[in-house]
Amino acid sequence: MTPPRPRHPKPDTNQAEIVAKLREQGMCVHDVSSLGGDILDLFVGGYNLKTRRDEWVQVEIKTEKGALTDGQQKYLAKWIGLPVVIARNAEDVLQYFGHKSPKRRVKQDDPHI
Questions:
Q1: DSSP conformation class of 49
Q2: Is residue 107 part of a domain?
Q3: Other C-beta atoms within 10 Å of 87: how many?
Q4: Is residue 37 left, alpha or beta, with left meaning phi > 0 and alpha meaning psi from -120 to 50?
Q5: Cystine design at 98: which of 16, 41, 50, 107 (Cβ 3.0–4.6 Å)?
Q6: Does residue 84 lie in a domain region?
């Protein structure tokens, strides 16, 4: 059994990096993680390249080994609103919106090409 989420949780260690990358890609990010309880971490809005319209999605950020709490699982079982993405990195959210991962810029003189 996963322990319940505290009333005033601290963000996952990867949350700031994920939020920054999403904003760099033009996503609108509302961080609601400080509300605590079983609500998920973020609301993310952006243009979905697959559906060709603006959309919102609710995002729960987890570290590589993180798992949903029992309360979050119950919340999601009753949830009938926005789509939900469980994200371990920004690419998980960007993939929902049909965006490809940003490619690493390579210098022309890079010996690893």
A1: T
A2: no
A3: 26
A4: left
A5: 50
A6: yes
pLDDT digits (tens, 9 = 90+) for 28-38: 999 998 888 88
Residue 4 lies in a domain: no
Q: Burial-class residue 59 by CB neighbours within 10 Å (0-12, 13-18, 19+).
A: buried
Determine the structural domain holding residue 26 and report its residue range.
15-96
Q: How many domains does the chain have?
A: 1
| Residue 44 to residue 2: CA distance in whole angstroms | 26
Is residue 111 in a domain? no
- Residue 16's nearest CA partner among 31, 2, 1, 38 is 31
Q: What is the pTM of this model?
A: 0.79
Pairing of strands 84-87, 53-61: parallel
Give me the residue label for tokens 């996503």.
27
Judge whether residue 6 has pLDDT over 60: no
